[in-house]
Structures are given as C-alpha cells and as structure tokens.
Amino acid sequence: MEIFKYMEKYDYEQVVICQDQTSGLKAIIAIHDTTLGPALGGTRMWTYASEEAAIEDALRLARGMTYKNAAAGLNLGGGKTVIMGDPFKDKNEEMFRALGRFIQGLNGRYITAEDVGTTVADMDLIHEETNYVTGISPAFGSSGNPSPVTAYGVYVGMKAAAKEAFGSESLEGKKVAVQGLGNVAYTLCKYLHEDGAQLIVTDINETAVKRVVEEFGATAVDPTEIYAQDVDIFAPCALGAIINDQTIPQLKAKVIAGSANNQLQESHHGQIVHELGIVYAPDYVINAGGVINVADELYGYNRDRAMKRVEGIYDSIAKIIEISKRDGIPTYLAANRLAEERISRVSKSRSTFLQNEKHILSNR
User: Fold this and answer.
1) Residue tagged active-site, from 68, 80, 159, 163
2) pLDDT (0 to 100) of residue 218
3) Cβ 42 vs Cβ 73: under 8 Å
4) What's the pTM?
C-alpha cells in the first residue's frame, strides 16, 4: 500500500503507528476527518495477516466512522484504532494503558471506545491513562456496554425499512434471517422475537446458536445456507463484505438490515441490490446506536436522552429511502450524500467564519 496516495485519495488527516515493546502493543490510530469535531471511533483487536492489512483496516474503518457520525447528526469526526493481536490470548493491562498514553498524546483529536475484540474492561484500562475514552464502566459515570443500544437502533431502522418494503413497519410474522449471533445480534433477536417475527439464524459459534434457538424458538441453519433462505428480511450481523457477486443471486429477502459494518463488498453491489428492488438500510446509519450512546457520555451520560437520539435512526433510514426514491439513486449513495452535505455545510460555515475573523483583525 502506498499510504500517502491512499490518504490523499480519501482525504485522511493523520495516521499514528504505536508500539510498546514491554506490553507487545502494535497499534494503528487513523484519523480521517475532524470537520465536525474530534474523531470518535472504537479500538478493534484482531489477528491481522500483515501490518499492511491492519493499516488498511484502520483507514477504511476510520473513514466509515466519519460518515456514521455525520449521518447520525453527531458533532464528531471519524477515527479508528486497530491492535494487532489475538484478543483471546495477547491482552494485558500494560498494552491498553500504553495505548491510553498514545491517545492522550493526541490531545483530544481522537476519542476511542469499545469495538470488535475489546471490552468495557479494556476501556477502563485505557481510562487509567486518558479521559479521551468512552464506553467505560458505569462506575465511572459511563454507559457501559453499547451493544444493547446498537441492537435497538438496528431494530427501529429495520422497522423503517420494512415499512417501505411491505407497507407496514410491523415485524409480526415476518421471517428474518440473522447472520451472526454476537452481543448485538442476540439482543436484536430478542426484540424481533417479542414482536412475533420468525427467526432463522446462523453462527460459527454453536453455543450462541443453541442459546437463540432455545430462548427465541429460532431455526438454525448452516452458515453457507443463510443467504438463500426464503425470508422477508436478511440481517447481516457478522463480518463485512457479505453482499457480493456470490451472495446476491441467492437472496430472496426484500430488506437487508443488520448491524455488520461494510456490508457491501464493493459500491456497485449497492447498485445491484437497488435494481433488484431490495430495500437496503445502509449499515453505518442503522448500526449507529452504539456510537450515539457513547457520544452522549461527552455531555454527561443521560440514558433517556441517548435512547431518544437512537430512536431517530428510524427517521434517518426513512429520510435516506426518501432521497433514494426522489433522486433515483441507491440508498447507500443517498446515505453518503446526506453525510457529505452535512460535512460540507459545516466546513463552509467554518471557513466563512475564519475569513471574517481575519478580515476584522486586518482592519484593526
């Protein structure tokens, strides 16, 4: 990867390479855009195949956070941290405290949170070294695990997409295929079960599958069979890039709405889905509940206020669908347009303000 060319292409601001020999920390902090405010994005720990793969993931995820935060109406930019290592074997206290010191050194340009492979306990260790971290234990006045709130946002966003596809937001009797049964998906399944939806589920974790089958009466299928299920809604809640040339021809669902990040393998797959008449709820909009929740901590956490903002995901998905229909474009492009226009307006406003300040000072 030619990193400066990549950064220039997508207008990244900063990449910080962090290493601490004592703890074994090898991390990348990527800051994409701070037009709207400090960059907020979680810390992910993963067994990357190479350093280049880790850097590319950090960059890609940071840019996604810029769009997510902008579309959610937050006064925050986009950033991300990735740690190279096995989250089940390589963690230690020193590692996260070292990362906390690196984050502190950015003086508030970047604020982190929990992500794939990290926990509230890990965020507490980062908090030992910096205040620029959210999603820490409630004992510190924080919101704790954001997964249930993320699930609620996906649930209300799914209802908005269902209203467009089926003429009603009710999920009663709807067949929903849920791919991946982690913390977010488990809570989503709970909401869907309570609404009377029929669940078809899959995960490589047999224990997670058994739990959902026993508690919510779900039907389990093999991971390779989840795409072709005769369902109304497909909810991708595992890894990304699962809407692609191989899976799209198998889909029978009229709605795609799930918590996974970067669901489209390539942008043109969003166009294909659009042409097939499938209502796609853009991932970074529908799964923004967690970031909305932790962002509320920056103002002194108030759960009622946070949940009210998360309920707004319903309106955001509805607005994106409206733009898509009005302009004849896929929903993923409508979401991008919504985010980019907000960033552009704030950027122009800030530029005008600075020019006026400069003019006033020059005439004194």
Assistant:
1) 80
2) 98
3) no
4) 0.85
